[in-house]
Amino acid sequence: MKQKKEDLRKAYAKWEQDGAIASLPRIESETGKPLKVVYTPQDVEDIPYLDAVGFPGQYPYTRGVYPAMYRIQPWAFRLYAGFGTAEDTNQRWKFLLKTGNRGVACAFDLATQLGLDSDHPDAEDEVGRLGVAIDSLRDMEVLYEGLPLDKMVSSFNINAPAAIILAMYIALGEKGGVTPDKLNGTLSNDILCEYVSRGMWVFSPGPALRLTTDVVEYCTRHLPRFYPFNIRGIIMREAGASMTQEAGFAFSNAIAYIQGALDRGLDIDDFAQRVSFFFSTGTKIFEEAARYRAARRMWANIMKERFGAKKPASMLFRFTGTVGGSFYRAQEPENNLIRGAYGVLANVLGGTQGMLHPAWDEPFSIPTEESAKLALRTQQICAYETGVTSVADPLGGAYYVEALTDSLHKEIGAVIETIDGMGGAVKAIEKGYMQQCIADEAYRVSMEEKSGKRVVVAVNKFQEGQTDKKLKFHEHDQTVLTRQVKRLMQVRKERDNATVKKALAVLQQEAKGNDNLMPCLIEAVKTYATLGEIMEALKGVFGTFREPKLI
Predict the structure, then answer these.
(1) Which pTM was predicted?
(2) What pLDDT, in 10s, does the model give residues 421-443?
(3) Residue 544 CB neighbours (<10 A)
(4) CA–CA separation, 417 vs 440, rounded Å?
């Protein structure tokens, strides 16, 4: 017999009174919203199933981007890896691929991310420390030595000099007989997140956005299997953004990039299906899963209603999830294995297409081979031993999860609406709005941890004090700088410097106009012009950016 709504309301009210529910402690969500003790059909009665939830693989894609989800194959297993010289990273990549990693995700050192050659005075202390050092096409050749470029997926996690790294990848492929249309991979190419949080910018927003648009235009026309954007919500969340701010800010940045591509004359359905995202996941399993369900619905809405996309593939929220390093702790660091496993589960229940799962020691050091292997095994055990891949969207229909999904969808929408009201992402960044929101949220979370309101095991609860256990961390090879600079000097000695000079002059001249710079960049890297030399040529036209003082 069908339950009447009024009967349910009365029964719920009686339950609340009999259980003294009002006297129970208040529990809040990750974003500070109060959570009920229990959720019932009352909490989802206004949610239209077909319009707001639907089925996997059908608009609005709340339950997943594909009908079968993981039944055919699990998400893409990848680990973020890069350190030392190209030889060092090549060796680690081969180890990970042999262990079951699908493709490679390249971490670049800070000097490379800022477009500095390894012998630049400002680069000396950073060469090869937080990622691999790439100075020229020669380094890229060594990085991929013995790897099948046409049969693997490469992810390049870099923003300011992203166009130059892509040019090197294309040139590398051509040297090996792999045409651009056969290259498969992803480029971060998300410069706006740098102005918001991390600060790894070089040019001001105008020319920086021009380069990002050059990339998407060139990829659309010549690299049909390559993703020209991987929007970095993770950078902002790791700086302190909440889960809804991460999604709202990332979507607002993506809207700015898409509008730039449309203004360039591209059709939305020609490139939208190759826009992807990279998000940070915490340990609040149900909230994280609901957030990703909400984000899928929101992105589908944006693409269909705001930009008029017609192809279903253009409306899919494609994302890689990773447990954020900010959720790991130095106290009893082995606990990060458990935190990571719960985060992996949240990602899977949220419907991720790929994972770059961090090793338990990754926030403190380059992972060892042992810790990297454990991180990969964590994903593999989840995929093949737990049964979570058997059913698409297994949490769908749960009163709590559906109510959370609807609430988070509204929260993300409110963030985007606020930024739209400011004139878009660039204007919001220039006003310091996103930066201030992140700072405020980071402070709120920090105070909650300090007070004990937000429990972190072995940090503010269940502490055991100092231990004598010595942990094995990756040791930085002190010869990296010497080895890298030696190769850089050799490249400069062996190349045709007159040809390099001419290519840089052509690039600089073209940068003064409005044409796409990718062809010039490809020609420049083929001459073995270095990353730093190319960036200096562009600085001669674009200048550099200095962050304004925000009042």
Answers:
(1) 0.94
(2) 999 999 999 999 999 999 999 99
(3) 12
(4) 19
